[in-house]
Amino acid sequence: MAFASFSPTEMRPTALMLNIVAASYTTWLFNRARLVDWKKLTPLLASSLPMAVVGGLVVLNEQIYKTITGLVFLVAAVALAFQRRSNGELEEPTPLWGVISIGAVIGFVSGLTGVGGGLFLAPLLIALQWASPKQTAALSAPFNLANSVLGLLGVMYAGQVPTAQTWLYAIAAVAGAIIGTSVGLRWLSQTMTRYILAVVLGAAGIQFLFF
Fold it and tell me: What counts of helices (H) and strands (E) characterise the chain?
């Protein structure tokens, strides 16, 4: 949408709607496989969901929105590109205050920009060694889904609604999620997937900031 020059009033609600569509599919997959640690997810959601609504209620002018969102994309790209490797084991205890603080900040940014919260949650959990890569992936999907739903409610209450073509984008998002999951599981390593996503986010961030 950044490359297609969508206006912020269309981009934010449409992005949140597509987050909901894609994250619903991945959440269903992880939950069906019983990989989601709902006990670990609960404090993250408790702090992030109210802040996602608050972020959604904030309407920025176009230039400020583009600047903030562009910076958010670049930060996410750097976090993904230089994400710390994990040996697959949970090594550090998860402090409740840390989880609540991180959840609140990510929830607000998710609602404010329309960027999926899982994009920031994943590298943070791994960098802090609060979850293994598999646990992180299973936590990020429902976290993204719930924050996008609450963020969208705030955005729509503030007067921004998805584009009329969102249903077409939603079909494409579901198809992309299914294909992407298959490709990622069969042919791409986690490292390669991170680098591809980092390049896309970095390019979008530059588009926002300089074009």
Answer: 8, 0
- 83, pLDDT greater than 80: no
Amino acid at 46: A
Environment class of 112 (CB within 10 Å of its CB; exposed 0-12, middle 13-18, buried 19+): buried
DSSP 8-state symbol, 3: T
Q: What pLDDT is recorded for position 193?
A: 74
pLDDT, position 89: 52
Backbone dihedral region for residue 34 (phi beyond 0: left; psi -120 to 50: alpha; all else: beta): left
The Cβ of residue 75 has, within 10 Å, a number of other Cβ atoms equal to 17
Q: For residue 98, what are the contacts with CB-CB under 8 A and spacing of at least 6?
A: 128, 130
Q: Mean pLDDT score of the chain, rounded to an integer?
A: 85
User: Nearest Cα to 128, choosing from 101, 152, 109?
Assistant: 101
Encoding tokens for residue 169? 């984008």
Longest alpha-carbon distance in the chain = 47
Residues whose CB is less than 8 angstroms from the CB of residue 191 and which lie 6 or more positions away in sequence, other chains included:
none
Residue 1 confidence class, pLDDT cut points 50, 70, 90: confident
Delimit the domains of the chain by residue range.
8-210
